[in-house]
Amino acid sequence: MTAFEEFGVIPELGKAVDDMEWLLPTDVQSEAIPLILGGGDVLLAAETGSGKTGAFCIPILQIVWETVKDLQDGKKSHHSHSIVPFRMSFFDRGNSLAITPNGLRCQSREQREWHGCRSTTGVKGNGRYYFEATVTDEGLCRVGWATDKANLDLGTDRFSYGFGGTGKKSNNKQFDDYGESFGINDVIGCLLDLGRGEISYTKNGKNLGVAFKINDQLKNEAFYPAVVLKNAEMEFNFGESDFKHKIPDGYIALFRAESTNVKNNPNAQLSSAEEMKSKPNAPKAIIIEPSRELAEQTFQQLEKFKKFLKDPTIREYLLIGGQSSKEQINELQKGVDIIVATPGRLEDLLSQGFVLLTHCRFFVLDEADGLLKQGYGGLIDRIHKQIPKITSDGNRLQMIVCSATLHDFDVKKMAERLMHFPTWVDLKGEDAVPETVHHCVVMVDPQKDSSWKNLRQHVQTDGVHVKDNVKPGINSAETLSEAVKMLKGEYCVRAIREHKMDRAIIFCRTKIDCDNLENYLRQVGGTEFSCVCLHGDRAPNERKANLLKFKEKQVKFLICTDVAARGLDISGLPFMINITLPDEKSNYVHRIGRVGRAERMGLAISLVSTVPEKVWYHGQWCNSRGKNCWNTNLVEQKGCCMWYNEPNYLADIEEHLGCTIQQVEADIKVPLNDFDGKVVYGQKRANTGSNYQDHVKQLKPIVDELADLELKAQSIFMRRLLL
Ligand SMILES: Nc1ncnc2c1ncn2[C@@H]1O[C@H](COP(=O)(O)OP(=O)(O)OP(=O)(O)O)[C@@H](O)[C@H]1O
To answer: Where residue 717 falls among pLDDT bands split at 50, 70, 90?
Structure first.
């Protein structure tokens, strides 16, 4: 048995994971996999590189595969209940009401709205019928009888009659005192006398008297057991098993009704086999990723995990922008089980009906805080609203939300709004940097370091100061700002040389900064500094090719904007450089988390200007959003520039992480002693696991005591046996 199988993972997936040399689940995986397999909503808040992708992909694949397999094998178990007499119907119910597979227990966790349900079959004629409903979880509930014309909110129109926990009976929205209130563990007997046209109730065996005279116009109608719940749960017994209380004289169990008097609920029969068989373009899981690269990466992981999932095979599909939607629509029509998508294209195809949500039972938001910050909150709400909360085979929608920086107000609000009693898998309780990442800052001070005054060549700057009179000798804020830009190019080269970096990811603030640095590194180092860019202005194919070149070590450096900050997994990457700190503090954690993944060590160096730096800031007011925009006025003057105060950003990041980030000198020598002296960046820590002997010493007295206690317990037990 593989280690993953011990957590409930099926052998087909366990073997695939084993083949990837994942011998043990990571901490987040061992917590999350059983939770997701068990049907829960989960918030995964573990640090970068801790294996969150596997933590949700593996259980989702498992459940989707099992669902598709059941359908293929003809195990339409849930479906068949829709034609089994006297079950609560999976189809004639409100969309937030869950029903157990045996069709005998209903639950709604919706706090604000009522959700109701009717049974698969009802009775007509002149007989007298009885069933019991027990409150199994406190909340608001009403139970009784309804015709098939009634709405599901029992007792609010003239076609249904209900008795509620607050001690009120209701028909046609008229609520009157009746009997007494009831709550958890109370058993309500529901009596229907069709001959006399009367409905009565019992509570724990006590008859509460006639509640309703059935309206004459409904005399020839069939009546169905019905319930409506608000954050409550009820269990039903139609007479298939023993009743808790004696059936009142003259009544029979509903289940024993003469077949000629039993009528199928027409609303429940909508559930034809056709409905169970999902349309080809109705996936069972939707995973949303904030960037194309990340969507592609998650998609590739799914492909690896599903390697041994045969008969049926799982059809995953990558739905991202920058590709022909016509082709995507054709592919979706061929059939899809899991969609990995970027938000824009997904919404496009959803709104045109090319992706159906009818059978979706997993809704995953990877890098959820990032999605919200990019303004996709509304879209997430809209999609969530369209997904049925219970699938047609009776399973509840599961929502999984993931990020290394989930401790964010908006995420918590969203979880409250959309998730169903979610469990936090949160090993640290706050946003944290993995121990495998060494991170430090280098202050770039153009007043102390005047080398910029005599540079023979330097990185092309972003042009915000073209209209300013900046040159050595003019001691203005603009000159210092320009100086910082030049110095940062030099410090970057120095960092590369000092640490003999042969692989690093370098983050710049803007696309133009990326392009300029790319040119400069080529100019300074030629093939020694081979590099490529990844940012939003590069064509999709170039982005893809560049990332591949970097992953396959054909080039040494990947220069990118924050599009690559989150999630990208480049195995064994030893170094990253921040040319400028990110505008968004949570992105610091994500950027530096590109190194120090999967237990390998990594070094992250951030260059921080001591003086204000004027930078581009193209907001919504900028027509071209930066393309060929040369408006160097400040935002306050309707321009596209701002003064960037990096020490403030640094302070924000430090406050967020609750630590002071180590500063190193301008020579960028990182004193290894401050860490543990044995680090080779890009490799696993050399000295892990070597101190087990100390552990043994520490644990010995406790283990001895335990052994002693065990012995005593066993002796007592043996003595008792002999007595
Ligand atoms: N159980 C495991 N054993 C060994 N390696 C693993 C295991 N789980 C994940 N990995 C590896 O760890 C790396 C990081 O995993 P993953 O990309 O899922 O991290 P993450 O938590 O999503 O990080 P981020 O927050 O940056 O997105 C990947 O290279 C993955 O292959």
So the answer is: confident
